[in-house]
Amino acid sequence: MNQQTNIRSTADYQAMDAAHHWHPFSDMADLNRKGSRVISSAQGVWLTDTDGNRFIDGMSGLWCVNVGYGREEIVEAVARQLRDLPYYNTFFQCTHPAAAEFAEALANVAPPQMNRVFFTNSGSESNDTVFRLARVYWDCLGKPSKKIFIGRKNGYHGSTATATSMGGMAAMHGQSGLPFNGFAHIDQPYWYGEGRPEGLSPEEFGKLRAKQLEAKIDELGEENVCAFIAEPIQGAGGVIIPPESYWPEIQRICNEREILLITDEVICGFGRTGSWWGAETYGVTPDLMPIAKGMTSGYQPMGGVFISDKVAGPVMEKAGEFYHGYTYSGHPAACAAGLASLRILQEEKLVERVRDVLAPRMAKLWAGLADHPLVGETRTRGFLGAIELVKNKETGERFDGDLGVGGMARDLSVGKHGLVMRAVGDTMIASPPYVMTEEELDEMAARARATLDDLADKLTREGRL
Ligand code: PMP
Question: Of 287, 321, 347, which residue constitutes the final position of a domain?
């Protein structure tokens, strides 16, 4: 228990919070009526709240605490760095040891075509950087008309205005008059969620969805298209795992048409899919890769963009100064946290652990949940999982959206069974820390099943089934 900060009651914190704290992605009136859960400490994969309740963190915070909570190595590295040099900028012909060392360490684990990293403070800022750098690249090649970004419906690339425009979240677009001009979106490769079109296998469907990129480039004119950006596996959209046919077809199109390929590795990077990068898992060769989250395992806010030699070359040769950067680009404490986190991933062979131990076990456990009457489909890839809740298992009929069945499942999971899973509509998703033991993973699946059983009871009692 953290005695320094946790000195008031839960009700005190909730009242302070309700009066003064505006939360991200929250209906504040609703949240303030209910009161926030106050999480005060954590160890390994376990969270504790101010009432002493313990939860298995099936989401690694927000897809970021990959090496688990309570890692003294990271705490020590950050403290040491803050004593030596708490801050210095990397703008005016200066660097510092932590930035140089972290950049080198990152390049050593990056795909072979990537040798440079630009530091940011978040995934959103990484994608703003991608937007500006990709456009400068085409200017340097004498093709300044190549400006349009193609993203995907239901893709997520962050919350700044540019990242929101790149992404395809209809609700976000609706609220702010976005996307800006210069963004286009194709459909997502979401086999289960888009009605499992009759007569099409998932592989045929995946290929068709990828071919939409080709059609969109032709519609807009290749000479006007800058880049295609996509998450290897859509995270916030609902852990949407593309059919195996999807990415090879995207790569073919990007090879044949002259546009940049950008894989947003903010969630998939640093081992989440069982190899270092989602691009590696799907065998594609991106030109730019935004990263964040697992970069420091969430111990410090940080993001970055891996820049391929193909993009770096012309920009370094022709652009002169790239007028872009953040005060905290390469913040020393963030670099120290990143280096320590990377060292843990390497020394404890955690990416291999995801691939060889956790992913196969999760696949088996999630497949085991698929027999539940409320479950239409389960799917996993690496250490990511999804459970599709349906009203009718045979037909795949969904519940009425207004019922909020996903939210009910999440509340039961967290509130009654002590398991943090997230709901995206009626899809339950999970993305646990890589240090989870096999016993803890089994326990997580057991709690997920108990949640489903309780949900079925509740819906039956209410006459919804
Ligand atoms: N890209 C992807 C794929 C993400 O999942 C997220 C965050 N969930 C972002 C970008 C934005 O990152 P941040 O919240 O750090 O700005």
Answer: 347
Helix (H) and strand (E) counts in the chain = 17, 15
Residue 206 resides in a domain: yes
Expressed in angstroms and rounded, the spacing between residue 156 Cα and the centre of ligand 1 is 7
**Per-chain mean pLDDT for the chain:** 97
Report the separation in Å between the CA atom of 115 and the middle of ligand 1, taken as the mean of its atom positions: 22
Q: How many domains does the chain have?
A: 2
Report the DSSP pairing between strands 427-430 and 46-49: unpaired
**Domain boundary, last residue among 347, 364, 379:** 347
58 Cβ closer than 6 Å to some ligand 1 atom: no
| Residue 17 is assigned to a structural domain of this protein | no
- Any atom of ligand 1 within 6 Å of the Cβ of 231: yes
pLDDT digits (tens, 9 = 90+) for 19-64: 999 999 999 999 999 999 999 999 999 999 999 999 999 999 999 9
Q: What is the model's pTM?
A: 0.97
Q: Are residues 226 and 356 in the same domain?
A: no
CA distance 90 to 82: 16
User: Quick one: 329 and 400 in the same domain?
Assistant: no
Ligand 1: distance of its center to the CA of 289 in Å?
13
Is the distance from the beta carbon of residue 156 to the nearest atom of ligand 1 less than 6 Å?
yes
- Taking the CA of residue 123 as reference, the ligand 1 atom at the shortest distance is 12
Question: Can you give the pLDDT at residue 465?
Answer: 87
Three-class secondary structure of residue 94 per DSSP: coil
**Is the confidence metric ipTM above 0.85 for this complex?**
yes
Q: How far apart are CA 34 and CA 23, in angstroms?
A: 14
pLDDT, residue 308, reads 98
Tell me the C-alpha distance between 444 and 305, whole Å.
Answer: 34
* Nearest alpha carbon, ligand 1 atom 1: 157
CA 175/CA 153 separation, integer angstroms:
16
Q: What is the pLDDT of residues 141-168, one digit of tens each?
A: 999 999 999 999 999 999 999 999 999 9
Span 327-340, pLDDT tens digits: 999 999 999 999 99
- Structural domain boundaries enclosing 166: 73-347
Closest by alpha carbon to 328, among 122, 66, 107? 122
Quick check: CB of 157 below 6 Å from ligand 1?
yes
Same domain for 246 and 360, yes or no, is: no
Q: Which atom of ligand 1 is nearest to the CA of 303?
A: 15
CB of 235 closer than 6 A to ligand 1? yes
State the closest ligand 1 atom to the C-alpha of 235, by its place in the atom list counted from 1: 5
